[in-house]
Design brief:
heterodimer, A: about 375 residues, alpha/beta, Rossmann fold, 3 domains, 4-stranded parallel β-sheet, 8 strands, B: about 325 residues, 13 helices, globular, binds iron/sulfur cluster
């Protein structure tokens, strides 16, 4: 058995640690690129959302490198993501690829026994003891947390750093170096080191850079390829950004939501505008818009794939928030046709507008 | 008290319930007219660009009611069956509408869970609040409404046509003759009869659904997939006509699952949005009917190769 996982931001680094800790054979597909997207779009139904297409690209590229088992999380709607695994399986089978899927679904929908059975299909191939397996899992979660923390710090500090580009370079080095570590222990050390270095990046806290929140559909905000590296672009301009959606947030949210303890802040913040969970992460999107306004951000950018149902609902709501709170929000829709030029122009125009607002303190734009 | 009821989305399926309920409460009803050009235009103007046509049309209906009533009823249908959903846009429909159309009167938008009577009662109590506080009256209104709905039937089942196709899609795409340019009439005129999912329930459908790796969690997906798969595999019909909205996330999944199941069985997928021209639809429907007619003849001629020569993949 040779397992693989689809890409989503830095998840591949933690996944590598997990597989190494478990001692199972694995393939990490090549990082997302035009090639993956092209393969995916070629084989996917035209109207499906962008993440689906990129995932198909990842799978095929991984299979070509010898992977025979895909590990992916499931969900039970109400959004399309819950149907992904079934469609992916059928699509790959139709294309003649022999590949197994291990779908890690919520116990609520498949039952606890089935969940354990699915997990044991993965761990059965691991030579280690039970304790080793738990350790591997704990380390992978810890690594994900550290990666998210380092990334968040870099995005925040990009507005304050004394030498423009320090944070971006450090972040890039951190990813590369962590990925090339030979064992989970070494990876943890390496990340702790970078975390410390990131804390020590020389900053000038007297400046007041623009602060922008990145909100929207979870895959497109986390996976930089799908949003055309928007966070890097903003870092280059010395803008401080924040994004709540991270893989670690997702893990926490999924574990806590059966008990109703997930993201209390979001729930309160979104109550006036979207009091129900409608699927996807629309409610988080609306809640984050409010929260970032409250914490003094200059604006927010919403990103979602073409045709994304929950985010279309939030897109309808965001203009009201923008008006009520006098808080500019830009909505960007991405799909495989998104051209870099037009996209960048819109971001630049938005940033310029935020800067002008700062300078003149104009009300209403 | 005038309550406005928009004739959009699931109105065609559930109007007996909603109209009876509000009438019993003593409200005067204002119902928007059949979808027409001006309703569509208003919808397109106010609704977010990315939304699908039925949601835009719904916005148009609400817009029509804006100055004609004291309360607008926007159903927030969350669940019709246990463990299944409709569509994220249905759950957020009231927010979409109220944030897009300015100057609306008060809105009734309590979530509807039609899974148990108790949950329906919760909905009824909350929704009746602005009209009456008489609990007994609300209770009897709800009972009358449920009764009325249970006697109501929709669906087509044409008899006496040489060719029969399964007409599939969301109810509002099937029954709003303005949205679908009266597709049923077009087909009938070409000598093609239709059957809809209401007339093909039962064990076959359920069995098809069970064969999936994962039970679909959308009501639309479960019903439509089961319907098409059952009829096509049993060859009860000669073809499938699927009416779908552009940018409908649910249809994109259903169509993919169906295609995988029925393979080369003839299926015409008509995707509609506000830019769809009638002429183009006519051409495609005619070509499809033609193809079905020819392949039917072939089958009765006993094609020497023992296979259908004209099975076609839909061009969409
Ligand atoms: S949330 Fe959006 S992108 Fe994600 S599965 Fe649903 S429709 Fe697709
Ligand atoms: S099911 Fe499809 S057509 Fe209906 S509201 Fe949802 S996205 Fe639109």
């Amino acid at each position: 058995m040779k397992v693989t996982i689809p890409h989503m931001g830095n998840v591949y680094i933690a996944a590598k640690a997990l597989f190494e800790g478990l001692g199972v054979d694995y393939v990490i597909p090549p990082l997302n690129s035009r090639a993956a997207l092209e393969i995916g779009s070629l084989h996917s139904p035209e109207e499906i959302c962008l993440p689906f297409k990129i995932l198909v690209g990842n799978y095929i590229q991984a299979i070509e490198q010898g992977a025979d088992t895909v590990i992916v999380t499931g969900s039970c709607g109400p959004c399309r993501f819950g149907e992904y695994s079934e469609m992916h399986m059928k699509l790959l089978r139709r294309l003649g690829y022999k590949v197994d899927f291990i779908v890690i679904d919520a116990p609520k929908s498949i039952g606890f026994k089935e969940l354990l059975a699915r997990i044991s299909r993965l761990t059965a191939h691991s030579p280690g003891t039970k304790g080793r397996k738990w350790l591997a899992l704990a380390q992978a979660v810890r690594i994900m947390g550290l990666l998210d923390a380092v990334e968040a710090k870099a995005h925040e500090k990009a507005g304050y750093e004394k030498v423009r580009g320090t944070c971006k370079n450090l972040l890039k080095k951190c990813r590369q170096e962590a990925y090339s570590c030979g064992s989970p222990d070494k990876m943890l050390d390496c990340l702790n080191g970078y975390n410390r270095m990131m804390n020590e990046v020389p900053c000038d806290r007297t400046v007041t850079p623009l602060k922008i929140a990145i909100i929207g559909e979870i895959y497109t905000v986390i996976e930089p390829f799908s949003n055309l590296y928007i966070e890097d672009k903003l870092m280059d301009r010395g803008i401080s950004t924040r994004r709540l959606m991270t893989p670690s947030w997702w893990i926490r949210n999924t574990l806590l939501s059966p008990a109703g303890l997930n993201s209390p802040g979001i729930k309160t913040a979104s109550r006036d505008y979207l009091p129900y969970y409608i699927g996807g992460h629309a409610r988080e999107c609306v809640g984050e818009a409010i929260l970032s306004w409250k914490s003094g951000f200059d604006g927010a950018i919403q990103i979602f794939p073409m045709g994304c149902m929950p985010e279309i609902v939030s897109k309808a709501i965001l203009p009201t928030i923008a008006r009520d709170k006098d808080f500019p929000i830009l909505s960007l829709v991405v799909d495989e046709m998104t051209g870099e030029a037009g996209y960048v122009t819109r971001i630049e125009a938005f940033v310029d507008m935020l800067e002008r607002r700062r300078n003149h303190v104009v009300s209403g734009y | 008290m005038k309550v406005g009821i928009p004739r959009g989305l699931l109105y065609d399926q559930f109007h007996p319930f909603f109209t009876r309920f509000f009438t019993e409460l003593g409200a005067e009803l204002v119902i928007s007219p059949q979808t027409n050009k001006s309703i569509l235009d208003a919808g397109v103007q106010y609704c977010v660009d990315e939304a699908c046509l039925p949601v835009k049309v719904f916005h148009g209906h609400v817009c029509h009611l804006r100055d004609r009533c004291d309360l607008v009823f926007i159903p927030r249908i969350m669940q019709l069956y246990k463990g299944e959903y409709i569509c994220p846009k249905f759950c957020g429909l009231p927010e979409m509408v109220t944030n897009s159309i300015p100057g609306l009167p008060e809105v009734i938008s309590h979530p509807v869970y039609a899974t148990t009577m108790a949950r329906l009662r919760q909905w009824a109590m909350a929704s009746a609040c602005p009209i009456t506080r008489d609990r007994r009256r609300v209770k009897s209104a709800l009972e009358a409404a449920v009764d009325e709905q249970s006697r109501f039937r929709t669906g087509y089942h044409d008899q006496g046509y040489p060719i029969k196709v399964a007409l599939a899609g969301h109810p509002y795409n099937l029954y709003d003759t303005f949205i679908n340019m009266n597709i049923k009439k077009k087909l009938n005129n070409l000598g093609v009869g239709v059957i809809t999912e209401e007339f093909a329930g039962g064990e076959d459908t359920a069995q098809e659904v069970r064969a999936l790796f994962k039970k679909p969690f959308w009501t639309f997906a479960r019903k439509t997939y089961g319907f098409i798969a059952a009829l096509a595999s049993k060859k009860h019909v000669q073809g499938v006509v699927y009416i779908s909205s552009f940018a409908c996330g649910i249809d994109s999944v259903i169509i993919e699952l169906v295609r995988d199941r029925i393979k080369d069985f003839p299926m015409l997928v008509l995707k509609i949005d506000e830019h769809t021209g009638e002429a183009g639809v006519d051409t495609r429907v005619e070509a499809f009917a033609d193809m079905l007619e020819r392949s039917c003849k072939h089958e009765s001629d006993h094609s020497p190769y023992g296979q259908c020569l004209y099975s076609c993949k839909s061009p969409v």
